[in-house]
């Protein structure tokens, strides 16, 4: 399935990953994309990367054309506090459009009130969408149709894993997979630092660390085994890994990750206020 005309509000990190991923995966033609961003630097980035797309500074251009007139789907990819100002712009009429928001913490009720209808989907994606390895969850408001869900599944499914959840689970999703890539980048960087400390060249250490994280993730997904069992299989009796595991447990790495997920989820709940 190819996506219809899409207008994206905001052209930052997450739009680049999600929309860029969809174009790369072939479900969206750049010629069907209108991208709104206030700064000329951002518009220039999109125009250079995807010459067929249309970029606009705001909801209308100098010729009086609306960014929304010909689109069927609108993706809101601005920071949470920019959602309200965007939706209260008198030039923004989203009647008859499927509206998708990726703003952390912003409830469906806020968006449906702002757009004036409830054909609205709230999504929590993540940046590995850019390379087709995203993890996203979404929740729908009342007027979303089966064919709208197909469009959302096409968008998110083309760039990775997608699952429908109830809205009250989206803060937890933010804690695990929305913010999650940042925790794992930190882990990869730290593993590489450890490799350098133990005598490896930086490039070799980084490649080994990144591939190890990818391999471990693929083992969990492809074997279906419990991660605890997969961990036990690496720990030879009296060996190297169990010596390392003891250090990780003494430093409460498990508790730190649990607290990190909860801190992100709590912040997402705060953003709703
Ligand atoms: N980054 C991530 O990993 C994830 C982010 N999200 C969510 O995605 C959303 C965007 O985050 P992110 O991409 O990181 O943020 P960025 O700051 O990178 O991008 C925000 C974009 O919004 C644009 N913008 C600001 N004001 C307006 C406006 N009035 N009208 C149109 N566009 C505007 C900015 O334009 P300009 O560049 O011209 O200033 C910028 O391109 C957030 O709500 C966040 O919660 C969700 C999941 C993961
Ligand atoms: O840090 C943030 O607020 C956004 C939402 C999830 C990931 N990045």
If you average the pLDDT, what whole number results? Answer: 97
Give the terminus-to-terminus CA distance.
37 Å
The computed structural class is alpha/beta
What number of structural domains do the residues give? 2
Biggest beta sheet attributes:
8 strands, mixed
Number of helices: 11
Describe the protein.
- By secondary structure, this protein is α/β, with parallel strands linked by helices.
- The protein folds into 2 domains: 6-170, Rossmann fold, CATH 3.40.50; 180-271, ProC C-terminal domain-like fold.
- The chain has 11 helices and 8 strands.
- Strands 3-2-1-4-5-6-7-8 form an 8-stranded mixed beta sheet, with helices on both faces.
- Strand 5 (98-101), helix 4 (108-115) and strand 6 form a beta-alpha-beta unit.
- (2S)-3,4-dihydro-2H-pyrrole-2-carboxylic acid binds next to helix 6.
- Residues 9-15, 36-39, 42, 77-80, 82, 85-86, 102-104, 124-127, 178 line the site of NADPH dihydro-nicotinamide-adenine-dinucleotide phosphate.
- Residues 167-271 form the Pyrroline-5-carboxylate reductase dimerisation domain.
- NADP(+) binds at residues 77-80.
- Pfam families: F420_oxidored, P5CR_dimer.
Give a quick summary of the entry:
With 273 residues, the protein is of the alpha/beta class. It is 51% helix and 13% strand.
Topology:
Layout: E1 6-9, H1 13-25, E2 33-36, H2 40-49, E3 54-56, E4 73-76, H3 80-88, E5 98-101, H4 108-115, E6 120-124, E7 134-140, H5 146-158, E8 160-164, H6 170-178, H7 180-197, H8 202-223, H9 227-234, H10 240-250, H11 253-271
Parallel strand pairs: 1-2, 1-4, 2-3, 4-5, 5-6, 7-8
Antiparallel strand pairs: 6-7
Helix pairs in contact: 3-4, 6-11, 7-8
